[in-house]
Amino acid sequence: MSERKDLPERESMEFDVVIVGAGPAGLSAAIRLKQVNPELTVVVLEKGAEVGAHILSGAVVDPVGIDRLLPGWTKEEDHPFKTRVRDDQFLFLGPAGSFACRIS
Fold first, then answer.
1. What is the pTM of this model?
2. Is residue 87 part of a domain?
3. Quick check: is 44 in a domain?
4. Which domain holds residue 23?
């Protein structure tokens, strides 16, 4: 196979681990890998302009996973979860109408 000489040279970087997607799973995988082995070089690739660009607002997040991954994260002033969930209410939609069900 012949090389094309008119193409620019590509840059490359080497990493031990490449994670595709900066969603909750990708970010937690990257954090945990660095916790287990700080010497690893880990990169997270995200197609969005910034981390969380594809996350819908208004999500209700159970923080148990974050608590296990980053103990004490709630003591940081700039953590993103500001409002605690006090109760859940589900609205069931059906052909005859809808009804609410509160979970305590």
1. 0.66
2. no
3. yes
4. 15-50
